[in-house]
Specification:
- α1 links the parallel β3 and β4.
- This protein is globular.
- The relative contact order is 0.16.
- It contains eleven helices and ten strands.
Length: 298
């Protein structure tokens, strides 16, 4: 079912999935960075609806079918607001108990979801899949070993882009993915799998972002998805692939979260494997469904 709701004055486009019987609860499902609701978020939303939950997957502001200019902008503050606005939208539905709403964040939305739930206690339980803090990923690299000058050069490029835009040269953007399979393979498994998912028929979608405005970079720079984790007292389940280079971020978030928590490892899975490969998605969904069933019980 197509739905819309407002977030900071922007119209957000979503897909609402309804269970066959009385709902066990309701879940907001956030997509990865550059993703759209038809990709990983939609897959998890459909599977969790089949498990008995009302689920809402949506396109973040500036992305997919949602409003906002420049297109493709990654604004962490707005992404957190979108999650809270999605929760607000669910509270208005007659088939949703406002005291039984959870949140599932995938990749970047895993980090955004932690920040949203830490300051919005309408969210009664939090799940993540391949969670990252997008700021740590940009500043430190997916594996946490990126030299500091790399990000400083990105900030310089972002500043130059703002100057160019002020001079009337239009939105300045850059591609987040390699331009070819060979270039992607040269970047290692994580880079190649991201390229394969977003840029080939494996998981590609025409509305997923293929460029990012440079003004995303300095917005990301000062964000910290984990800053308020001492306030996150709701139950937390983090699902991560044992082979994911990004898993150190799930570990850090897990260690800092204040409430009841569990970190579930899937052996053999990489970061992107958890987006769409059934041998990993199925156990992840089973784990999440059991978790949300328990934590959102009447």
């Amino acid at each position: 079912m197509n739905v819309t709701f407002r977030s900071n004055g922007l119209e957000i486009a979503g897909h609402l999935h309804l269970p066959a019987e009385e709902p066990l609860g309701a879940l907001v499902v956030g997509h990865p960075g550059t993703g759209v609701k038809e990709q990983a978020a939609g897959l998890y939303a459909q599977r969790l609806a089949s498990a008995g939950f009302v689920t809402l997957a949506y396109d973040a502001a500036y992305q997919g079918e949602s409003e906002g200019l420049p297109r493709g902008l990654e604004d962490p503050a707005q992404r957190v607001e979108d999650l809270k606005a999605a929760v607000s939208s669910l509270t208005t539905r007659a088939d949703v108990d406002p005291d039984r709403i959870g949140l599932l964040g995938i990749c970047a939305s895993g980090g955004y979801g932690l920040a949203a739930a830490a300051t919005d206690h309408r969210i009664k339980a939090v799940g993540t899949v391949s969670a990252v803090d997008i700021a740590r990923q940009f500043r430190l690299g997916a594996d946490g070993t990126q030299p500091a000058p790399v990000f400083r050069s990105l900030l310089d490029a972002a500043a130059a882009a703002r100057t160019a835009e002020a001079r009337g040269e239009g939105v300045q953007s850059f591609p987040p993915f390699p331009s070819s399979a060979s270039e992607a393979r040269a970047g290692g498994r994580h880079v190649h799998e991201g390229w394969e998912y977003y840029c080939t028929p494996r998981g590609g979608h025409p509305r997923s972002a293929k460029t990012l405005p440079w003004s995303s970079v300095d917005r990301i720079a000062t964000f910290d998805a984990f800053a308020a984790l001492d306030l996150l007292t709701q139950p937390l389940l983090m699902v991560a692939g044992r082979d994911a280079v990004t898993s150190w971020m799930s570990v850090e978030a897990f260690q800092r979260a204040a409430g009841p928590k569990e970190l579930a490892w899937l052996d053999g899975a990489s970061h992107v494997d958890l987006y769409d490969k059934d041998e990993f998605v199925t156990p992840a969904v089973d784990k999440l469904a059991a978790f949300f069933t328990k934590e959102l019980a009447k």
